Amino acid sequence: MSDFILARVSQTLANEHSLELLVRQLLEMLELVTRMESTYLTRIDLSAQRQLVMYAHNSSEMTIPEGFSVPWNESLCKRAIDDNCLFSNDVASRWRSCIAARELGITTFFSIPVRLTDGSLYGTLCATSRQKQPYNLEGEQVMGLFANLISHYVEKETLVEQLRAANSALEMHSCTDELTGLPNRRALFKHLSTIFPRARANCSAIFC
């Protein structure tokens, strides 16, 4: 893996603070390494049996649209996972039954599953081209690295959201009277800074 890519990855990890910004930077780098026309991250909803393109980077005539959704069982990514095939530069012959690939004009396809630490399938990281491109070992290595980075970042964001939700629930509990379910004195004192100015403006009295 080139020092340039490693330096870009380090800089991106240091500067980007959301999943979207991180992924967009990684997709741009992935296009440079794989020399594909489109790179994109998908999200797979197994309960709904749908695959959605979350973020995409398109650098040529081929366009993979963000928000593009297909039934999971009909997707190119599921076929690749089922066949344990990360790369093909003859998609039309290998997966001739895939309507989405035919509609998008995909000839060369590179895909790596994005799995969370519990092994569950989050989505896929993909690179595609209308042209027939040769297999690229560095491309596979970089895709594997990026898939792991995305997985860790997704889990970090999920943990942060869970902590925020737990903190909000704890704060609400501490500010609510257990018997009446109404705001208690703690809640009142917490909002005094806004209550007093409002009371002065309305010429109202405050009873504690």
From TrEMBL:
Domain GAF: 18-164
Cited InterPro entries: GAF, GAF-like_dom_sf, Rev_trsase/Diguanyl_cyclase
Recorded coiled-coil stretches: none
SUPFAM superfamilies reported in the protein's UniProt record: GAF domain-like
Protein name: GAF domain-containing protein
Organism: Raoultella ornithinolytica (Klebsiella ornithinolytica)
